[in-house]
Amino acid sequence: MAGPIPELEECATRCARRLAEADRVLLASHIDADGLTSAAIATQALERARIPFETVFEKQLDADAIAAIAATEYDTVLFTDFGSGQLDIISEYEADNAFTPVIADHHQPATIDDDGESVRVDTDYHLNPLLFGINGASELSGAGASYVLARALAAVADLPPDESIATDGGTTTAARADNRDLAALAVVGAVGDMQASGGELHGANAKIVAEGVDAGVLETGKDLALYGKQTRPLPKLLEYATDVHIPGISNDQNGALRFLDGLDLELKRDGEWRRWASLTNDEKQTVASALVRRAVSSGVPATKIDGLVSTAYVLPDEPVGTELRDASEFSTLLNATARYERADVGLGVCLGDRGEALERARKLLRDHRRNLSEGIDLVTQEGVTHEDHLQWFHAGDRIRETIVGIVAGMAMGNQGISRSKPIIAFADKDDEHVKVSARGTHSLVRNGLDLSVVVGEASRAVGGDGGGHDVAAGATVPKGDEDAFLERANAIVGEQLS
Ligand code: C5P
Ligand code: C5P
Ligand code: ZN
């Protein structure tokens, strides 16, 4: 099973039993790659367990969104990739018998003030790795929690043999019958939430990877740690790869071309540059060795060079050269849909629509890529403001609030943007509200940083609300209160890192 901790599985079984008892379920999920894959896993598990359901997506599960959910006829609501952080509100509806919540999430659970002490709110059907000593920011994502639930649902649903499953043959039949085939989506969700730190997935995520490999829906192996191995022409792959800066290649169009031309390989076919994924192992080896040599000779430190290789998560059923074959490219494709109000498109792709949904998603991806690169340029050119313990920028309406956090994270490490302080980004949400996104690094977290506390406390201090993870968090605050928010956040970060 996926959970290394028996209590996590017991909890999943309890949640699954509750779902199996329901006449029908309203599934509510979050609008990012992890939320979409969570929903795709949950919908397939519900469908296979023959539990009728309907799906809704929310940008943010705030009081209004929960009220709208409570106003529906559904008695059972399954929340995936959010819900824990809103248990203070959700539990009130539960107490009023508006609905029974079942939650598969990995965010920090809400706390309430009990006689001056902050205590966690809980509910009977709450599946969250953080309750079982598993790190929700790095060891299990929302999609991972949904996968653990799906596995439990297959076990408790006690189904008669399903003909559509039985005709598949071989390992696929068994993997579908116990929902192990859904492990690939769980890995896409975890990668989308940036849980592959230090180049690979850890802990409970690693167990899911092992189940996926076993079920034949995943392949893993050490590979070049660059984004775009499936779809980017080789020169672009190298030019745009900036996580490890290689002088004369990274951010250098002509440099990348010269480097490739200098190799004794046929890297063009019919006049077009090939993609990394289409190279033979020997060709890959030649390019990778030359890259490492170049990095060494230009003085890139050995620790950085190690970062050029990481574990790739490949979906072998998807065609070579498509976004869907690589977990990282797949997750970006999903963000390109859901963060632009087209969660339906992303969900369609996750559920196997390789026609209209995929075509639409690819169009959205082109826009998303452009928005990210323009956003990063904007922040890098205009710079950030440095306070003692954090740095910040305000994008106003120039970066979409749904991607400002991604931009902030990607800009860290660029000229003038430090990796030794967390970054806070603001973007307009509506006339009265501003979105806050905060990003840190794993090294800051090891030194005590917890952005979910920083952003939660500082936003509530100015009448907003927020939360998230230690390494990445977000909030909504009233427009005009940015300075007060920053002052408070700066003080809390200072305390955490002292
Ligand atoms: O809401 P959810 O948990 O799915 O989102 C997590 C967010 O945290 C993602 O936007 C992800 O990119 C971000 N993150 C990050 N750095 C990490 C881990 C997560 O920016 N190391
Ligand atoms: O929106 P952004 O990508 O910055 O979110 C970072 C993390 O903070 C995500 O895990 C998100 O779910 C969480 N978040 C939250 N409450 C908010 C906004 C974001 O828990 N109001
Ligand atoms: Zn998530």
What does this molecule look like?
The protein has 498 residues and is of the alpha/beta class. It has 3 domains: 6-219, inorganic pyrophosphatase (n-terminal core) (Alpha-Beta Complex), CATH 3.90.1640; 222-374, no CATH class; 383-497, Diaminopimelate Epimerase, Chain A, domain 1 (Roll), CATH 3.10.310.40. It has 20 helices and 17 strands. The strands form 5 sheets. A 6-stranded mixed β-sheet has the order 12-13-14-15-17-16. The protein has a 5-stranded parallel β-sheet with strand order 2-1-3-4-7, with helices on both faces. A hairpin with a 4-residue loop joins strand 12 and strand 13. Helix 15 (343-350) packs across helix 16 and helix 19 packs antiparallel against helix 20. The longest helix is centred in the last third of the chain and has 27 residues, at 356-382. Residues 164-169 have low confidence and may be disordered.
- List low-pLDDT spans: 164-169
Outline, from the CA principal axes?
globular
Mean pLDDT: 94
CATH architecture of the largest domain: Alpha-Beta Complex
Domain DHHA1: 398-494
InterPro entries: DHH_CID (IPR048515), DHH_sf (IPR038763), DHHA1_dom (IPR003156), SSDNA_exonuclease_RecJ (IPR051673)
Protein name: Phosphoesterase RecJ domain-containing protein
Organism: Natronorubrum sulfidifaciens JCM 14089
